[in-house]
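To assess whether the prediction recovers the assembly geometry, we first specified each molecular entity separately, as shown.
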Amino acid sequence: MTERPEDPRRPTIREVARLADVSHQTVSRYLRSREGLKPQTLARIDAAVSELDYRPNLVARYLNTRRTGRLAIVMPELVASNPTRILSGATEAAHEAGYSLELVSFGGGIDARTERLLELADSGQVEGILTLAPIAPSAQGRLGNGAAIVVSADFDDEMRSVGELIDAAPVRDMIERLSGLGHRRFYHVAGDLKYASARARKDAYLEAVDRLGVESAGVFEGDWTARSGFDAMRALPHGALPTAVIAGNDMVAVGVMRWASEHGLEIPRDLSVTGWDDTEFGRFLTPALTSVELDLEGVGRNGMVRLVKAVTGRDLAPSPGPVSRLLWRESTARRDQTPRRLG
Amino acid sequence: MTERPEDPRRPTIREVARLADVSHQTVSRYLRSREGLKPQTLARIDAAVSELDYRPNLVARYLNTRRTGRLAIVMPELVASNPTRILSGATEAAHEAGYSLELVSFGGGIDARTERLLELADSGQVEGILTLAPIAPSAQGRLGNGAAIVVSADFDDEMRSVGELIDAAPVRDMIERLSGLGHRRFYHVAGDLKYASARARKDAYLEAVDRLGVESAGVFEGDWTARSGFDAMRALPHGALPTAVIAGNDMVAVGVMRWASEHGLEIPRDLSVTGWDDTEFGRFLTPALTSVELDLEGVGRNGMVRLVKAVTGRDLAPSPGPVSRLLWRESTARRDQTPRRLG
DNA sequence: GACACAATAGTGACCGGTCACTATGTTGAA
DNA sequence: TTCAACATAGTGACCGGTCACTATTGTGTC
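The predicted structure of the complete assembly is given in tokenized form:
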């Protein structure tokens, strides 16, 4: 319908060459690396470039080099946690490395996602893929000659992985401290166990509970949602209440807290609850949620740093600073001495 | 470091042509539209294509057509609300239209963002841009010959806009109903007024308050964060408490609720609070938050539909169904008859 | 001054598609 | 039968860069 304006064609390398009175190849050399040119020639090209406001056509360049200058990032379709900060860190790093980042969001289950991801890798459209969603292990043998693939938020012994979301050390710290506060019976509402981070937290939970010789009311296989936190509590056998719940993230913790309030349990007097992600709503909840602050931009950046390394061999500066920090707030406290039961 | 595997070059149009025993041009025709070919020729090419697993090289195609097949989506750097669902709807629609979607996240203020956005539009890299972040009105005259730009989450009389996030009708419904429940003094904690949605809700608030002849404790200019909800309450002159707070979104409402609980006010007995976005945490809060459910995938999709229309003139099917729905929950109730004051 | 050699610069083909134009085959009316 | 007119297919250039190779200039040494 709307006619595009007529041919706003950008100047080409040959026009620059003509203006600078050199050959197109000299301009090409100038573009790739300014070495091997006489200062005088260089200056002439400099002038021509800025006069014409020349910018190289990356698409044309690709035809020879096979380098598209594009990476892709795959988002899980449904996410309880907010991937914005991860995306933000990832785009920044990608741009820093001179890449543009294509956003892909694959519906369907893990298998459909894996299939489409491999197709994308094989399409030649992108040089590498960072996926925030888990993919099927079956993919591992099929990476052959396509783009490099880095999986964040999940890992697999055979595949490259970021591994940072996976650091579950704070879970151990939580349980140690809570045990020191008199808690003897714990419960873990895990996130979606297709995610390595969820598996790592679960393992850390089991390890700590075992090591400290405290009781566990079990591990509930949730999916990062508040609903799953609520359901996890409901699934608990009557009379077998824990005094501390380690929730997979803040959202899950909200569900746990809701269940508690519906059953007349007061937090933290009757039940201590911990979250993960240090979300803003968690900080402003009543009681404010004990949680783990994550450097999510750093996670995104580091995933991208790995991908860039895999694709180009080039080392980008990773995110400085620690990835996680445990923040004690009002939702955790010394265990109440008088045992309660459901109202 | 890692050597890329040697030349996994995909088959070209000429190889397909050779195998099908036609000219490359015939294959090219076949690719663009399968019309004007003898059924027999078509079948031969079909066979060759599938035998070679041929897929066209979109980059090469661009060189002639100037169509990159790429659109960009600009994310605000910091967002209180979760844009995931919008992104998801937008990518789906973009892919449906045969476009890939590039993710861009510009730091800096609105002016820096606008500058970089215009640069991107001018780069020829993308055919269109959908921005979820507001851009400066000054940009409007400068769209000249670059990519089409559609602004979601904001609008400007001169610029195309999605307009759907902007529908603030539920604000009117909220105030009407609350007024029917006996509320006479309202307060509005607006979102970032650089966003059209925030402005629209504010206008709807002022209009409804005025029309119904109820009192307003004012409008606080927040920024979509829980912190701003908390601060808004703190900024209220002592003794001038409203009985109902219309918060810009659920996150803001959480901040309001936190302040209330710190000051011994019980919700909804002493204060009714409404949110916006129907977040999962809002549903599981105690009390559960009255909020507005949004079809965010639909918002993303419709933004993209507009962009595709602007770029190609083609009409993609917009999202069906209504965009928002008001959900009454526990955080709103009949106004308590015995007036309270801060504890 | 002559020569080898390095430092610079230029020429033309090519990447994988599309475009403009031409060539051939087919059909139907005169 | 002939020829116009249409349907179908082919030829070669071109998009804007890079690559491989060749040509020219400059420098140092004998």
